[in-house]
Structure formats: C-alpha cells, structure tokens
Amino acid sequence: MAEKNKLSIISMSGDFDKAIAVFTLASGAAAVNYEVNIFFTFWGLNSIKKVGGRSFLGKGILARFFNFLLGGRKNLPLSRLNFGGLSPILMTGMMKGKNVATFEELFAASKALGVNFYACEMAMHVLELTREDFIPEVKAVLGVASFLEMSQGGQTLFI
Q: What is residue 49's DSSP assignment?
C-alpha cells in the first residue's frame, strides 16, 4: 500500500490573512486525505489559544503584557492595512459575500478533518504559556527536532 501524502506547516505568524492561508492549505490537504501537521510557534500560537480574545496569560509582567496584546483567534490583525482592527471584519464580510470559507469555518474544518495541531515548546516557555492555555485539539507540545522528525517524507511550508 502506498504511503499517505503528508503536509507539514509551520505557523509562526499571528496575522489574520496568513492564518487563513494556514487553515486553507491544512483543510484542503486533509480533505484529499493528506496527513496534515501544523506546528504553531510564537505569534502562530494565537490561533490555538483556548480563549479567543485578549487575556493576561503567563506569570511575569512581560509575558502577561505580550499575551494580552497578541490576543487570540478573534484579535488577529491583517498583515497590511489593518485599519485599527477593522480590516479582518471587512475581509470576513467579503469572504462571506463571495461564498468563501471564513477563518472560523476553515479552523473548524481543519479540526473536523483531523488536522494534527502541535504547540512549540520553546515559544510556550518564552511566552509563559501552558498546555491548559490551548484548545483540546492540540495533540502535543513539541520541540523542533520532534516536529522535523514527524515532517520527514512530506512537504513542509513556513507561514
């Protein structure tokens, strides 16, 4: 039997449009029976936080400040022309108007299609995040070496 196709994505950006790209590729690949692994690191971790909005996570003042400013899935800025946070709302409206899956729909589809979510251990340590800060669909907290080993034999993208 042939080996299953594999796509591994490193999600580092916390930008709305880049997160849409991550989940569009992930859900599309999973829909055609690829094994899909996403490694969320630094600002990419916002996509998988349990709290969708802003919250003071972490123990130290700097970690709490950074995590509040970064927000969660509901506070991802557009990478260009964010207009004080208005652009993701406008972009979502445009997507709905064109019958294109929105960020939240792509995120839900990725979970439903069995995309594997992994959190970066080092970034979590720096930002003082714990496993409990993330959605239950996160399969594991990994280091880079473990993710690279898991990614062998497939395509790897960095977004």
A: B
